[in-house]
Amino acid sequence: MMAAAAAAATDERRLQLIDGACEPSSTPSFLTMLSYVVERLVARNDGLVDDGLEEASWNRKNLSVFNGVRAPAISIPKYLERIYKYTNCSPSCFVVGYAYVDRLVHRHPQSLVVSLNVHRLLLTSVMVASKILDDEHYNNAFYARVGGVSNADLNRLELELLFMLDFDVTVSYKVFESYCLHLEKEMKCNGALQTVERALFTNGIHNVNVLSIEDQEDIVDSSSL
Question: Pfam families attached here (predicted)?
Fold first, then answer.
């Protein structure tokens, strides 16, 4: 009993995501656009669940495997900034990661991307995209530290994502371009003219920001993640 309580307390400490955990000097435009689109999607779906219109169906569907106990305190923009800051994955990984999430929704239409699962979905999707696109990338254990989940959980979520996608993780340049245009269109509708970097280039990991103990403590509360 005491051991279980201690483990729960450790998880609570490790998973407590603070909204101000990552404050880069300037947010890349692709992160701004992606954050805006994902936040709108989550707000809409949270509203459906709160109204009881979709709760009975979505809770039984496959995306529930990504659910945390509660929604993390860290915002979607700050979470994406954190992933970008510490993993140094190429910008295209975030667009392709978003494409994976979109594929999941289309393959499992009764599943909803909501506050309980969006952080884990984004972390897992971007990590898988980095393995496909980047010549050099960090392993699952590092992504787990950055994202505030356990390595075992992230390993499991990666497998869940791959099987739910039927291992369809290739994205053609034409499809990539269509998602870039979609993100730009959404921002334009909101009155902001921004463009997504189109180059499917790879980043190195040698000059990445160092993840300190304090940084890890800042983000984690994966009882919520």
Answer: Cyclin
Which amino acid, one-letter code, is at 122? Answer: L
- Maximum average pLDDT range among 19-23, 112-116, 197-201: 112-116
Residue 108 Cα to chain centre, angstroms: 18
Domain boundaries, the chain: 27-47+59-195
* Cα distance between residue 41 and residue 45, in whole Å: 6
Question: How does the average pLDDT of the chain come out, rounded?
Answer: 78
Using alpha carbons, select from 69, 119, 72, 66 the residue that is nearest to residue 97. 119
Choose among 158, 131, 30: nearest CA to 84: 30
Q: What is the pLDDT of residues 91-126, one digit of tens each?
A: 999 999 999 999 999 998 888 999 999 999 999 999
Selecting from 3.40.50.150, 3.40.190.10, 3.40.50.1240, 1.10.472.10, what CATH number does the domain 27-47+59-195 have? Answer: 1.10.472.10
